[in-house]
Amino acid sequence: MVSKKEWLEKFAASPKLERSFTTLSDLPVDPLYTPEDLPDFDYHRDLGQPGDYPYTRGIHNTMYRGRTWTMRQFSGFGTAKETNERYKYLLANGTTGLSVAFDFPTLYGRDSDDPRSRGEVGKCGVAIDTLADMEQLFSGIPLDQITTSMTINPPAPILLAMYLAVAEKQGVSWDKVGGTIQNDMLKEYIAQKTWIYPPEPSLKIIVDVMKFTAEKVPNWNTISISGYHIREAGSTAVQELAFTLCDGMTYVKAAIAAGMDPDVFAPRLSFFFNAHSDFFEEIAKYRAARRIWSRFMKEEIGAKNPRSWLLRFHTQTAGCSLTAQQPLINIVRTTIQALAAVIGGTQSLHTNSLDETLALPTEQAVTVALRTQQILAEESGVANVIDPLGGSYFVESLTNRLEADALEYIRKIDEMGGMIRAIERGYPQREISNAAYHYQQQVDKNEKTIVAVNKFATEEAINIDTLYIDEAIEKRQVENLQRVRENRDNEAVAKNLRALKETAVNGGNLMPAILDCVRSYASLGEIINRLREVFGEYSDPAYL
Predict the structure, then answer these.
(1) What dihedral angle (degrees, nearest 10) is formed by the CA atoms of 55, 60, 63, 69?
(2) Distance (Å) of CA 441 to CA 29, 434, 449, 534
(3) Three-class SS string for 391-419?
(4) By the 8 A CB rule, do 78 and 100 touch?
(5) What is the DSSP-derived secondary structure letter of residue 101?
(6) Model pLDDT for residues 282-306, shown as the tens digit of each residue
(7) How far apart are CA 44 and CA 67, in angstroms?
(8) Are 497 and 527 in contact (CB under 8 A)?
(9) Contact 395, 283 (CB under 8 A)
(10) Angle at Cα 270 formed by Cα 100 and Cα 355, nearest 5°?
(11) Which helix (H) or strand (E) holds 148?
(12) How many angstroms separate the Cα of 126 from the Cα of each of 121, 122, 251, 473?
């Protein structure tokens, strides 16, 4: 038989395209892969069956033959009333999970009448100030019949408390409530930048949520450890994989240091990854993530429950890959990315809408995005076979390469003293910044192609309908907040806020005190400001 080396020598003499052949993250790609690329391959050690350690092929033995991935479209705009209407539309059209997008003031823990909120209320997500807004948001949506993901970080415990209070008002017991809060602060310091408190108190708050939900809300995912924003900030696939898992390892160690049993909290950890445009690299990334995480939890942490070894993840297609130019072709990009997520074994999926580089998506654009998932699930046949690319010499080699490169990053961060110390030194921030700059240089030099931007561009005007957020929405939201403040028991609010501050000073679990504040209709900003008095505010260090 001709060896790979001999074949490559023949190949070298043949005419080829004048370009480099690499993944999107610049990993070199050979023209052919053979068994020679997997010299030490052991099926049971490196792959295992689906549902078996180390879960390279998937975390469930039936995967999509047992249950289709959750179709969870990220949505939110205007006031709670407008978003509630959009949720009901999505549910009527086949979405199987909800995902809340909050506006900038809510993400930063500011009330809608805060001067810093002016011009941003309801613009990039829904405005939530008090429990009254959360009641409206889920009006007519039984919380024991749907799971909800909330993309919220510093204010995560407060939004969770509001959600649980709505469940109480609906007569739904907390053990029947399922969903996820993002609650991942470490990635805020390195990517998304919506921080409030410094890292140490932020970690303490995250552990408070983990302890509270483990006891009171057993079906709630306490954290969604997020690589999505890291990739959107410009990282490579390897950096997304490594920094996300490093963040997760930090949370696990913090919870154990606080006295928690990993087999109590680890089964409710979840992850959130990007699905970018390099089809095979993305699939390999998800497979490597499962393998690294399961080995960390079993071999390093010593978790005994196999459910503690599982890396369950949500995926969103890459917003940063979409173009304002020729926006209709974004449908194709999103389809390829969604297909990679599904073949890679995602548990839930959000497909971006074609118009999201221009505005929040229209109802028509959202419908096309949802139908993309439904066609993949119902028509393509992709869900029929578990890990259909497993055993591919290329995919297995690429999985191994991503795993090895990610582990090298993790080793470097461990040598720095862990992720918090690395963040303080600006290490992941610099790595992401350098990767983003390098990629943009490649685009500018036409070394990397973006169709409709630096190749196959046209002069045609961008002419599609976009969603308009009425400026009057901000006025209505502020009036709603003022009305709540006028009608609530302000003495009870003041008492609960004092108790919250006292709990924070004494180091107690904050969740019960936050729930009391929320039930009395204290506002998001009032609660955040009281905690800020104790924990202080984070300032991003300058780094080069």
Answers:
(1) -100
(2) 21, 11, 11, 44
(3) CCHHHHHHHHHHHHHHHHHHHHHHHCCCH
(4) no
(5) P
(6) 999 999 999 999 999 999 999 999 9
(7) 25
(8) yes
(9) yes
(10) 40
(11) strand 148-150
(12) 8, 5, 28, 11
Nearest Cα to Cα of residue 336 among 377, 371, 376: 376
Q: How far is CA 72 from CA 38, 95, 150, 212, 277, in A?
A: 37, 6, 11, 25, 20
CATH of span 43-445: 3.20.20.240
Buried b (16+ CB within 10 A) or exposed e, 172-193: bebeebbbbbbbbbbbbbbbbe
End-to-end CA distance of the chain: 53
Amino acid at 281: E
Question: pLDDT tens digits, residue range 102-158?
Answer: 999 999 999 999 999 999 999 999 999 999 999 999 999 999 999 999 999 999 999
Report the pLDDT averaged over residues 471-492. 96
Q: Which residues pair with 432 in a beta bridge?
A: none
pLDDT at residue number 180: 96
Task: Give ∠ CA 326-359-180 in degrees, rounded to 5.
Answer: 115
Sheet holding 269-275: strands in order across?
A: 220-221, 179-181, 148-150, 97-100, 70-75, 348-350, 313-317, 269-275, 223-226
Tokens 């140490």 locate to: 200
- Radius of gyration of the chain from its Cα atoms, rounded to whole angstroms: 24
The b/e string for 433-468 (b: 16+ C-beta within 10 A; e otherwise) is: bebbeebeebeeeeebebebeeeeeeeeeeeeeebe
155: cis peptide before it, omega within 30°? no
CA distance 341 to 273: 9
**Are 464 and 358 spatial neighbours (Cβ–Cβ below 8 Å)?**
yes
pLDDT band at 460 (very low <50, low <70, confident <90, very high): confident
Backbone angles phi, psi at 273, to 5 degrees: -120, 160
